Amino acid sequence: MKWSFKIARIAGIDVRIHSTFLLLIAWIGFSYWISQKSIVAVLNGILFILLLFFFVILHEFGHALAARKFGIATKDITLLPIGGVARIEKMPKEPRQELRVALAGPLVNLVLAVILFFWLFISNGLPSISQLSLTGGSLLERLAFVNLSLFLFNLIPAFPMDGGRVLRALLATKMDYARATQTAATFGQGFALIFGIIGLFSNPFFLFIALFVWIGAGQESSSVQIKESIGGIPVRQAMVTNFQTLSPTQRISDAITAILSGYQQDFPILNGDQMVGILTRPAIMQAIAREGATINIASVMEKNFVSVNSDEMLDVVMGKLQTCGCTSVPVFENGALIGLITMENMGEFLMIQSAMKRAKPNN
After folding, report:
1. Which domains are delineated in the chain?
2. Does residue 67 contact residue 90 with C-beta atoms inside 8 Å?
3. Other C-beta atoms within 10 Å of 330: how many?
4. What is the pLDDT of residues 255-291, one digit of tens each?
5. Burial of 191 by CB count in 10 Å (0-12 exposed, 13-18 middle, 19+ buried)?
6. Alpha-carbon dihedral of residues 118, 48, 13, 324, nearest 10 degrees?
7. Catalytic one of 60, 98, 141, 220
8. Is 60 a catalytic residue?
9. Helix-helix angle 139-154:95-122, to 10 degrees
10. How many helices (H) and strands (E) would you count in the chain?
């Protein structure tokens, strides 16, 4: 993810922090200073938010490690001001597997909440439920409340929360996956309307949740419909075969000429018949700004790139494109580069397929 940096690697999974998360920390510290004018209060506020997001990381690791049991990898986990994002390669389509992966995250928070509440109970520090909040009470009380809140919030049966995936998994035991997704998305958008009404007449924060849920439900439904429509189609049918390659000894100026003379944005870099890297448009722009257009491509190209085989299915390749965050993926057949696949030409392929299905046969 752009604007993020790695802070750790745990269980083979990179943990990253988005730059905007640091702005959240600064804002929390500033808010405590303005309200209490105390360094101790500032440090306590920052400690609380760091522990809160530590539990968010554990939540995401719950998903990631559960997915690993089914042979599904997680590229990284990134902390954002609004929470954590685990870039899981794909969600399993077998309902019981998806159910276990979806529940794993909230169950981590439930276990943590039980442990913290139990400790408060045996130490005679357990307050009444009405006294629990994010701002009042001891640090342990607030952390216990946080984990309970994360557990309950994530089980709301609406995408993009885990509860939406739990609902879909349960529905998918009785109907096909696409219909289960559509039903769960519609159910989630119903929740969004309820949150919106609550937000209009009471707490405006519910308006934000309503928008979040409505958009998330729509995106999940559209994503699954697209994947269903391209399932079983090999990538060779949608890839770009008319593309230009460059050599690592050429200069960035040659890449600029190639961009201006055609449609291509990313360029495979070949040393003879072997692909040794890929040169992306952002890398070209950064190189020009940093060192000018005369430097060799070899010093700018990305040497670690994702590739696919020509017989892989489009729905799988789409998942790889979304996970890697790249705009183009080279396609190989018998070790030779034969094409490129991008989200744009995949979308064009879908539009053409849709138009052909609607077209009436000539009499």
Report:
1. 1-155 (no CATH), 157-230 (no CATH), 235-357 (3.10.580.10)
2. no
3. 20
4. 999 888 888 888 999 998 899 999 998 889 988 988 8
5. buried
6. 130
7. 60
8. yes
9. 160
10. 11, 9
